[in-house]
Each structure stands twice: as C-alpha cells, then as structure tokens.
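pipeline stage [seq->struct] | target=Heparan-alpha-glucosaminide N-acetyltransferase domain-containing protein | organism=Stenotrophomonas mori | residues=361
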Amino acid sequence: MTRSQSSQAPARYASVDALRGLTVAAMLLVNNPGTWSHVYAPLAHAEWNGCTPTDLVFPFFLVVVGVSIGLGVVPRVEQGADRGALTRSVLMRALRIIGLGMLLHLLAWWWLELPHYRPLGVLQRIGVCFAAGGLAAIWLRPRTQGLCLGALLAGYAALLAIGGSLAPLTNLPSRVDTALLGPLLYQHDPATGQGHDPEGLLSTLGALASTLVGLHAGALLRRRPWRLLPAALLLLAAGALWSHWLPFNKNLWTPSYVLWTAGWASAALWLAHILVDCRQWPPVGRRFGVNAITAYAGSSAMVLAMMATGSWNGLWQHGFDRWLTPLAGAQAASLAMALAFVALWWWPLAWMDRRGIYLKI
C-alpha cells in the first residue's frame, strides 16, 4: 500500500450527515417544549414500557454514532493507520464529549440551583458509547464485533431476568444506580432511598448494543448498501418478537428496544442513502448534522441560561401561550415554541456551514 493510499481520507456520505442532523433537530424539538405541563402528545416519551416516536430519537443518534465510526475509523484501520494513535484519538474525543456533558450539568446545578449535581446524562452516554464503538472498530474483527453484540444483548437480558421486576425504581438497573450514586441520580426519593436515572450505568449496556448495530450498518453502507433494508426488517421482526417477553423500555434500554429502534434507524439510513446519495436529493438536516455537538450543547446552554433568568418562561407566556393557546390549545402552543427554537438554531448552523466552520471536540 502506498503512502498516498494509506493517508486517503475516508469517504463522507451526505445521507449520514442528513440523518444525524435530522436526529439532532428532533432532540432539540423534544427536549425543549414551550412548557413541560403541556407537551404535544406525539413528542412525549412512553411513561414506562412502550415506544413512541420520541423514544426513537436517542437510539437513532447512537446508531448513527456507530455508522460514523464504521465510515470514519474502520477505513483508516484498513489503510494501515497506527492503531495506538487511533485509540488515543478515539478515547480523547470520548473524554471531551463526557466532559462537555458534565460541564452542562454543572451549569444546570449552578444556574438553576438544583439540590444536587447529576453526573450522568445524554452526552456522557454518547461519549462512553463512542469510546466502546471506536475501540471495537479498531481492535476487533467484524465477526468478533457481532459476537460482542450478541453477548451484550443476551447478557443484559439475563441480568434483567435475574434482577426480577422491571417496574420503576425496583428494577435491577435502578437498584444498581441507587447503590452507586444514590441522591445524585435524575430521580431520587429520600423517603424510600430509591432512585432512577434514564442514562444509568447498567442500562448503558443496551446503548452500547445500539452503537454496535450502527457499526455493522456502517459496514453495510460502505460495501453492501442494498442489504440495509433486509437487515432493518430482520431487526424489527426480532425486536417485536422479543418484546412479548421483554417489553420495549427506553429507561432500561431493554434488548427488545435495542433491536426495534435499531431496525427503524437502519431503515431510515437505507432510505436516506437511496434519496440523498443515489438520487441526489438535497440532504435536509445536514447543517445540524455537520455541527451536531455544537447544536446540542449550545442549545442546551442557551436554554439553561434562559431558564435561570426567567426569560424562557416569559417567552412562553408572552410569545406563545397568551395568544396561541386560546386559538389552538396549550399543546399546540408548546409545540410552536419548540419548532421556533429549532428554527432559531438553524440560522447560526447554516451560517457556520456556509463558511466551512465545523466545531469538533
């Protein structure tokens, strides 16, 4: 292999940027309603068991994380890049993502005067999954990656079964999180000592499985994209079948939920590839996708600042609730403010994209 071949940059797929961007835009939409008292019904999570359209958003992003690793890291390994250097690069980026998530939670604790600091969160989970997926791509063969995926799903299912009830607070992941982090969780009842965190430690096993499915989907996209749809249908069928014994549950990230959501994500990736890469449709959402962490972290910091100063509630009351609720209802007004927030963030991201500004951490 020549030096020019070994240093060739991996191909970039506009379909992946578009799908990542649409997923990030959906994150902003579901995370920032005008008021949590009147969330537009389709944008609400399942109360416990089940899977709404909103419950697809986070696993979609983790599948795309795996796809991106398959498109960005794996080609470098195949070109003979130094695996030690790649490992250091992956781990440092993962640590930066985790650190950014912890910094946002520090701002929330400080600005909103929360009773405790919460160390777990969305970016923290993304960082852990990026690290694990990157290490798998660098050091494991595809067959071994598949065996790891199967072991994760089977092992986590066995842990949930051994742990007994899957009910809120009494399930095994919640008990583990409570034992290790106690009052530092997203939800904690001082009277009973029970707690729960939707981005908890043990449930991250399911999230890792979602990322490994994405790594496999990235390999298919590179070499056999026509197999993405059959793979998606197989995942959907397996997830639906497994849900009869182990229900879909985002909070616990159950194995059936892994397969079901990864099936939809793989189908979306196939469709994006057909429309954007093959038929050259405009990559709608790309501007969110090429600055994904900037969009998520920047919008989160903005909302925290607005909540701390009272301007978020003021904007809701005077900009949307007062005049739109009497016309269309409180849920529609809440949705309108969420849509306006996403549209607001489109402008700076479009400006950055036009000037070739892409912030990476």
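stage status: PASS
auto-comment: The chain has one domain: 3-354. Residues 3-354 form one domain.
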